[in-house]
Design goal:
The complex is a heterotrimer.
Chain A lengths: L1 E6 H12 L1 E6 L6 H10 L6 E4 L3 H12 L4 E6 L1 H16 L4 E7 L18 H4 L9 E2 L4 H18 L2 E7 H5 L1 E6 L43 E3 L13 H16 L2 H4 L2 E4 L6 E6 L2 H14 L4 E6 L1 E3 L3 H7 L5 E6 L5 H8 L4 E6 L8 H10 L2
Parallel strand pairs in A: 2-3, 2-4, 4-5, 5-7, 6-7, 11-12, 11-14, 14-15
Antiparallel strand pairs in A: 1-8, 6-13, 10-12
Helix pairs in contact in A: 1-2, 1-6, 3-4, 10-13
Chain B lengths: L25 H18 L7 E5 L14 E4 L5 H11 L4 E7 H6 L2 H10 L4 E6 L34 H7 L4 E6 L3 H12 L5 E6 L3 H7 L5 H10 L1 E3 L10 E2 L3 E9 L5 H14 L4
Parallel strand pairs in B: 1-2, 1-3, 3-4, 4-6, 5-6, 7-9
Antiparallel strand pairs in B: 5-9, 8-9
Chain C lengths: L1 E9 L4 H15 L3 E8 L7 E9 L13 E6 L2 H7 L3 E10 L12 E5 L1 H9 L5 H13 L4 H11 L5 H13 L9
Parallel strand pairs in C: 1-4, 4-5, 5-6
Antiparallel strand pairs in C: 1-3, 2-3
The chains are: A alpha/beta, B alpha/beta, C alpha/beta.
Bound molecules: thiamine diphosphate and iron/sulfur cluster (SF4).
Chain lengths: 374, 281, 184
């Protein structure tokens, strides 16, 4: 383990290598490109591959292909590129392909302000692809969290055989921080389960007793079937309601029922809290300072920073905020994740504090808005 | 006991019959391809576990459903990047991309363009039935000018794409055109293509009696087959200039390009070795 | 312990390098935690350059990326002093490049004002290392990080042919009595 002063983007790149990244495919886009460039320099030295493709569509499809050789794969992009990747993300979901997509949000819609930040795409990250399922979305607010959550994204993706999103943004991407960088062996690294049966009796989409099916890969003699159509356990097309139900619920449950294990948050001043500021990403840093400012003025405010945005552990959130009177959801968009929390905290007053800022909303402004409601 | 078909060992026989319409040309494409693979495996030039099929979406792409090899049936137009992702990590794999003219020349156009530019080590088989079969008869970039499709009901006004010319222009090592009406030649083209490094592109003119045949009033598979056969001109070593794609004047089939330049993977591995030299010892 | 540090000047004054070296020295050579953000007006050379550092002994206290109330500030130019003076709290330690700052606002700051740019030009031979002269002063007075740590970061960060000049500039105030407080 060593400490380095690096940006969130470099922390992501370092973490991906520790997690076992073997294949990176990408197409340049601000503010994600320095992940790509750093890996282009470093990953080949460690036996991995970094290739620039003709667009984001090719990039994510190549990453999916590479993952079917059992190489851990990743791509990174921002809103315009993520939008192009959505169709393939859906492919990764139905084929249960482990894959990490680093989504470095920038100001939108469309080309927006390419170098600046925002949290406009928080719902797109999990709801954007077609098929109505949920994939894990982890949101760091500092370079250290970017590091830790990248490793977690790989682990979750391997364990559940699902694409996972690391939801960063231009602020985290370019903020420097002291980051504890660990080597393999100093941190838990999960690898996908492999089949223990011979090819003749292998069924590629049968989870057996586990959460996700063991994964045979290309070139191992298993006659693997990667199938984008609704399939049965063998991977054969099954255009039947019973097969569709079985597949949908299994894909849904394996992620949603992991919510408790994946639940990750931190809190400040929760003990005597009357008004909770709930936030995520770098906006949560601002909200923490806002809570401090409010406390200096005698308000019993606290801060809850969520690091796992999806799947949302509903019971955990409710318990965490049990004693709290009002809940303010602070985010740098028009009030999106607020909708998720309002649905979960139905017995509470949940107030949206949507503050659009090209960087992070200033703490004073957050505190000001909150005070209007007190 | 029923006598098996010689290709049975290469098929997921429990999935047969195929989903293709009676008389569809795609069975011939798959059959000749598997025969060529079988020859290469018997020769010891290919190992079975290293052969993989990747297809996008369409009747043609469903050729991936039946061979008993590693296979991926992915999304419309994106088989090439998927296959290249596999190939980069496992260069020993023989990646065979199969798809229709819509899959490869329309929605997948950007990917075939760059795969050709890279001379990527893939065998790309484009089954060209001149129509969108799976979705019910819409315009393809290969639909001959003037013909009816459901989305150009007054006759296709557009110029057709000549994929042979494109593949040759962008530097593929091997470029051929075959036809399901000439299965022996087709098998020979596949057999040749399977041994190439770099990109091998084989366009296969194929019959879609169900949709294309209906559009042009050749409803019976045999009639459409004969109609296509009439328009085929076989040449041993035609030049790229002779590759014109023209329903009226006919289609020349044969081997247009056969080169042996380093493929992408060799170039890439050479690049990688530079990074490895930089490794601190 | 939690400290906010603001470093600002005009583009071309080496503000980003100064802030980066300081942040890196703190992160990699002390037990302190730090978050840093580096901003500059890309469009205009000579526009604002600014580094915000939030330093704390506990990780969760290094909790923001922008200075809200600076405890330590360094202004290399009048324009940025005027623009950001309200971000500097009462009692803060403030360093000013007297070569570029003429009007000092009346605040209850502990002010250290020296002509960093002139010193760099006169003593080291180039005004380009004024940033390191100032950094030496800041490190000497605040003791936030050991000078040797800064020097090793300079060696890692600065192009080889510039290392000696930068280190000489950095040492200028460390050799003098660093606690020479100049204005109240
Ligand atoms: C992104 C996307 N757009 C459209 C479709 C619908 N679609 C499925 S197959 C196909 C075209 C099929 O034509 P072709 O590739 O020539 O194959 P064929 O069925 O003729 O063999 C289309 C448009 C799709 N599956 N995905
Ligand atoms: S629609 Fe045409 S291409 Fe598709 S299976 Fe039927 S005949 Fe073949």
């Amino acid at each position: 383990m060593r400490y380095e002063y690096v940006t969130g983007n470099i922390a992501v790149a370092e973490a991906s290598m520790t997690a076992g990244l073997k294949f990176y495919a990408g197409y340049p886009i601000t503010p994600s490109s320095d992940i790509f460039e750093y890996l282009a320099r470093e990953l080949p030295k460690r036996g991995g591959h970094v290739v620039q493709f003709e667009d984001e569509i090719a990039s994510i499809n190549a990453a999916i292909g590479a993952s079917w050789t059992c190489a851990k794969s990743m791509t990174a992009t921002s809103g315009p590129g993520f939008s192009l990747m959505l169709e393939a993300l859906s492919l990764a979901v139905i084929t249960e392909t482990p894959l990490v997509v680093v989504y470095v949000m920038r100001t939108g819609p469309s080309t927006g302000v390419p170098t600046r930040s925002g949290q406009y795409d928080v719902l797109q990250a999990t709801y954007g692809f077609h098929g109505g399922l949920v994939i894990p979305v982890l949101a760091p607010s500092t370079p250290q969290e970017a590091y830790d959550l990248t490793i977690r994204a790989f682990n979750v993706s391997e364990e559940l055989r699902t694409p996972a999103i690391l939801l960063s943004d231009a602020v985290v991407a370019h903020t420097y921080g002291k980051v504890a960088i660990r080597e393999r062996g100093e941190v838990e690294v999960v690898d996908r389960a492999k089949p223990s049966v011979p090819p003749e009796s292998y069924r590629p989409y049968d989870p057996l007793d586990g959460i996700a099916p063991p994964m045979a890969c290309f070139g191992e003699g298993y006659n693997v079937l990667v199938e984008s159509l609704t399939h049965d356990e063998k991977g054969y097309y099954a255009p039947r309601t019973d097969a569709q139900r079985r597949l949908m619920w299994r894909l849904y449950r394996k992620v949603v029922e992991s919510a408790e294990r994946l639940f990750d948050y931190s809190a400040a001043y929760l003990d005597d809290c009357e008004f909770a500021l709930v936030s995520y990403g770098p906006t949560a840093l601002s909200a923490r300072v806002a809570a401090k400012l409010l406390r200096e003025e005698g308000y019993r405010a606290c801060l809850v920073k969520l690091r796992t945005l999806f799947p949302l552990y509903e019971k955990g959130v409710r318990e965490l905020l049990r004693g709290v009177g009002k809940v303010f959801v602070v985010e740098n968009n028009v009030g999106l994740y607020f909708r998720e929390l309002r649905g979960v905290l139905r017995d509470k007053e949940v107030i949206s504090v949507p503050l659009i800022d090209l960087d992070v909303p200033p703490p004073q402004e957050i505190a000001g808005v909150v005070k209007e409601w007190l | 006991m029923a006598v098996g078909h010689p290709l049975d060992p290469y098929l997921r026989t429990d999935r047969l019959p195929t989903m293709w319409c009676p008389g569809c040309g795609l069975g011939v494409v798959l059959g000749t391809l598997l025969r060529a693979i079988d020859r290469r495996i018997r020769e010891g030039r290919l190992r079975r576990e290293n052969v993989a099929f990747v297809g996008g979406i369409g009747c043609s792409a469903r050729m991936t459903l039946y061979p008993l090899f590693d296979s991926a049936h992915v999304i419309h137009g994106r088989a090439i990047p998927f296959a290249l992702g596999v190939k980069i990590v496992k260069p020993k794999m023989k990646m065979i991309v199969v798809g229709g003219d819509g899959d490869i020349a329309a929605i997948g156009g950007n990917h075939i363009l760059h795969a050709l530019r890279r001379n990527a080590d893939l065998l790309v088989v484009m089954a060209n039935n001149m129509i969108y079969g799976m979705t019910g008869g819409q315009l393809a970039p290969t639909t001959p000018r003037g013909l009816y499709t459901t989305t150009t009901p007054y006759g296709n006004p557009e110029r057709e794409i000549n994929m042979v010319r494109l593949a040759a222009a962008l530097g593929a090592n091997y470029v051929a055109r075959g036809s399901t009406t000439h299965p022996q030649l087709l098998e020979q083209l596949f057999y040749k293509a399977l041994a190439k490094r770099g990109l091998a592109f084989v366009e296969v003119l194929s019959t879609c009696p169900e949709i294309f045949g209906r559009h042009i009033d050749f409803r019976s598979p045999v009639d459409l087959y004969l109609e296509l056969r009439k328009r085929i001109v076989v040449k041993a070593k035609p030049s790229v200039e002779e590759s014109d794609y023209n329903w009226e004047k006919g289609f020349v089939i044969g081997e247009f390009v056969d080169k042996d330049e380093p493929g992408y993977i060799e170039v890439y591995l050479d690049y990688l070795s530079k990074a490895l030299e930089k490794q601190p010892s | 312990m939690r400290l906010e540090i603001l470093i600002a000047g005009r583009g071309g004054q080496g503000i980003l390098l100064l802030g980066h070296v300081l942040g890196k020295a703190i992160a990699e050579h002390t037990d302190l935690h730090v978050l840093g953000s580096e901003t500059y007006a890309a469009e205009t050379r000579g526009g604002d350059s600014r580094v915000d550092l939030v330093v704390a002994d506990r990780e969760e206290e290094a909790d923001f990326i922008k200075v809200v109330r600076a405890d330590i500030a360094l202004f290399m130019h009048q324009l940025q002093l005027d623009a950001y003076k309200d971000l500097v709290g009462d009692g803060a330690v403030v360093f000013l490049d007297k070569s570029n700052v003429t009007e000092i606002p009346r605040r209850s700051w502990r002010i250290y004002a020296e002509p960093y740019t002139d010193i760099a030009e006169r003593e080291i031979g180039t005004s380009r290392v004024a940033n390191m002269v100032a950094l030496g002063h800041l490190v000497g007075v605040t003791s936030i990080v050991p000078p040797e740590a800064v020097e090793s970061v300079i060696r890692e960060t600065v192009a080889r042919e510039w290392v000696d000049l930068n280190i000489r500039a950095f040492r200028y105030f460390l050799r003098l009595s660093p606690h020479r407080q100049t204005e109240e």
